[in-house]
Design goal:
The chain is mostly helical and 124 residues long. The protein has 6 helices and 2 strands, in the order αββααααα.
Length: 124
């Protein structure tokens, strides 16, 4: 019997009882610090984009993808919050004049920015 395609491509097997199990390993990936946005993306990929998740994982590009999404999402979130605060007149003066109003507006702005990021980057 000839070599399997797996063996022809350099693959090897380990004998386990009556079975030959292919020796598969994932490519090495650099270590990245993955924040909340990257973790949300990972959760989404695992639940809803399993083929993309498997392709990124087996190609050794998953952590890089998550890191890039995390970095872009964080920067975009900060920019959106800053722009919305300016547009809505949420200033340090308002903070000192009416702290509760300022907190409510900032929380609303952050929630809106979160939703934008989820729709633009996480759930694409």
């Amino acid at each position: 019997m000839g070599k399997s395609l797996f063996e022809q491509m350099g693959g090897t097997y380990t004998q386990v009882g009556d079975y030959q199990i292919p020796n598969l390993t994932l490519p090495d990936e650099p270590e990245y610090h993955i924040g909340i946005w990257g973790m949300r993306r990972l959760d989404y990929l695992k639940k809803h984009k399993r083929i993309l998740y498997a392709n990124l994982l087996t190609s050794g590009k998953l952590n890089e993808h998550l890191y890039e999404i995390d970095k872009i999402a964080f920067e975009r979130h900060e920019l959106i919050v800053k722009q919305m605060m300016k547009a809505q007149g949420v200033t340090e003066q308002l903070k000192s004049d009416d702290m509760m109003k300022w907190v409510g507006l900032v929380n609303n702005i952050r929630n809106c920015a979160d939703e934008i990021i989820r729709n633009e980057l996480i759930y694409e």
